[in-house]
Amino acid sequence: MTMKQLARMLEASENMTPTQAITFLSRELENFEDKPTLFSVLSLELKTNNIGLSKAQKWMAKIYDVFEDEIVSEYDNYGDLGEAMYWFDNTNKENEYTINTFKTLIELDCGNMLSDSFKLISECLLKMSDIEVKWFIRYWLRTTRNGIKNSTLQKVMAKHYDKKISVVKKHCNFNSISDVVSYYEMNEEPPMNLTHGGFVAPMLAKAIPMNKWPSNKIVDFKYDGNRYQIHKQGDSVIVFNRKGNIVTEQFSDVADIVREYESDNLILDGEIYPIEGERPAPHSKLATRVHSKDKAEAIAKCPVKWVIFDCLLIEGETIMNLPYSERLEKIETLPDQAERSTDNVMAFYNKAINDGFEGIIVKDADAPYESGKRSKYWAKHKPPQIDLDLVILSARYGDGKNSSYFASFDLGAKSENGFVKVTSVGSGLTDANLISLTNTLRKNVENFKNTTYYFLPRVVLEIKADLVTKDKQGNYSLRFPRVHRIREDKFVADINTIKNIEELI
Fold first, then answer.
1. Residues 238 and 360 grouped into a single domain
2. Can you give the CATH number for the domain in which 229 is found?
3. Which residues touch 206 (CB under 8 Å, ≥6 apart)?
4. Cβ(38)–Cβ(134) under 8 Å?
5. Is 366 helix (H, G, I), strand (E, B) or coil?
6. What span, in angstroms and rounded, lies between the C-alpha atoms of 178 and 36?
7. Dihedral of the alpha carbons of 55, 58, 60, 61, in degrees to the nearest 10
8. Looking at the structure, do residues 99 and 221 belong to the same domain, yes or no?
9. Which of 158, 97, 107, 129 minimizes the C-alpha distance to 11?
10. Are 347 and 219 in contact (CB under 8 A)?
11. CATH number for the domain that contains residue 133
């Protein structure tokens, strides 16, 4: 399986409709031997490589021995670096690179141009044909622009392996897409049982109009904390954050609570939020738990409460595919349940707001647990205001006491070509927040111009605002934006898109 085969397949499918692409890709699979690696690439199940558009342009200029302005100009002409370099280096060189080499290259850590990664990419890129360069750059930057989503790949798998799409979706609920393909290649069924210590990507809620809420519903409080998944097997308790990182040490008091549960084999989904007395405290207090080196002191300074939303496994039985109502029945004897109701939704919503919480989550009582998906079965409902997750693109140092820290931030939403600036913000952050953000952002500086530092898109902020607007030039802005919290628990892939922004105008 060669890189050239992959590039030609991607080029052919680029402008196809989803239905055409599914038929074409399922047929093209016959030409590829290493299908697990192929699906790993197509689904972007890849390591972080620390490359962004600005840095990639510098690398291209260095590799092709031209001025950076030439590369930037080509990018401006085409709006896509892969397409720009396709025409910049319009040749048909020959090489024997395999798809494994392709995957290795796009996973190299590109944090430093003086590294071996630059040497290897430079050497390989100069031997690639124009079409290979185009698709290498697109997957290198993780901006594929070809419409091949995971839902598309699941349909391709169903068609190619003659499976029902519902079966493929269930298999992908428990395994990565590439692992599912590996099992299909061996003519085996992928495992559908969870195990202690095996993190499961959480199911996510989204904003859904009231007229599309489920008729058979269970409503939870929406707590202003962070999502955590806790595994218990006997006395062994593991606390995972939303990204799948182990944070048991930061929440040893919560681990002690769960360790006392009567059930010996559990995987629970829930939230940890800071409290003052019996009421929720500002979310920013959780930073004490996350960043403090003295864990005992952090526990004393920031008391928290743990609440259970859901259960994925109990007494060794995987129950993700059971209806939500039945999953709750399995854990009804456990303490620390989230507050929930099946009665008057708006009365329950008013109670949530009065008690100091964000709002409610309306859940379909008949729905399964959809791992890693922003699901139509969970609808979040909060007070009427704009609420967005955006990534920091650039920043400037402050004045006076904040002159040593970044204090004004430019934020962007996802677009097909990368990210588009939506707003600038400087309010809502504590001094501790500014110090923490500055320390993190300094490690991700990609460029500097005048007084502005530009960063790799790594840090997510949750923003609240009153209105979204768009001017005649197509520029977006938010009215009265303020930072609600730093979303260290959130991947950049999960932030809001330009399509979401357009829907709010």
1. yes
2. 3.30.470.30
3. 374, 375, 376, 378, 379, 380
4. no
5. coil
6. 5
7. 170
8. no
9. 129
10. no
11. 1.10.3260.10
Neighbours of 38 (CB within 10 A): 25
Instruction: Report the chain (505 residues): mean pLDDT per 10 consecutive residues.
Output: 90 89 92 92 89 90 93 89 87 83 94 88 93 95 88 94 93 88 94 86 89 94 93 96 90 96 94 91 84 86 95 93 95 95 93 91 95 89 86 92 90 88 90 89 89 92 87 85 88 89 85
What residues contact residue 31 under an 8 Å CB cut-off, 6+ apart? 1, 5, 9
**Whose CA is closest to 152, among 33, 37, 10, 2?**
10
CB of 173 closer than 8 Å to CB of 320: yes
Q: CB under 8 Å to 8, separation ≥6 — which residues?
A: 131
Q: Which pTM was predicted?
A: 0.67
**Residue 145 placed within a domain:** no
- Pick left, alpha or beta for residue 394 (phi over 0 → left; psi -120 to 50 → alpha; otherwise beta): beta
Q: Are residues 245 and 393 in the same domain?
A: no
Same domain flag for 224 and 114: no
- Judgement on whether residues 418 and 368 belong to the same structural domain of the protein: no
Structure tokens at 96: 């024997």
What range does the domain containing 210 cover? Answer: 204-381
Q: How far apart are CA 61 and CA 70, in angstroms?
A: 8
Strands (E), 139-283: 204-207, 217-222, 226-233, 236-241, 265-276, 279-280
Name the DSSP class of 342: S
- CA dist 283 and 265 (Å) reads 30
Give the chain's domain count: 3
Q: What is the DSSP letter of 416?
A: T
N-term to C-term CA, the chain: 47
Between 150-160 and 177-185, two packed helices, what is the crossing angle to 10 degrees? 10
